[in-house]
Amino acid sequence: MPTVGTSSSGQFSCATPTQHTLRDLRTKRKGQPVFVMGHVLERKGQEATFEVFNDRLAVVKFIDGVAIGYDPYELLLPTDIDPDGTAYFEIRSCAECQQFFPLTSDECESDPEPTACPECRG
Question: What is the value of pTM for the model shown?
Answer without folding.
Answer: 0.87
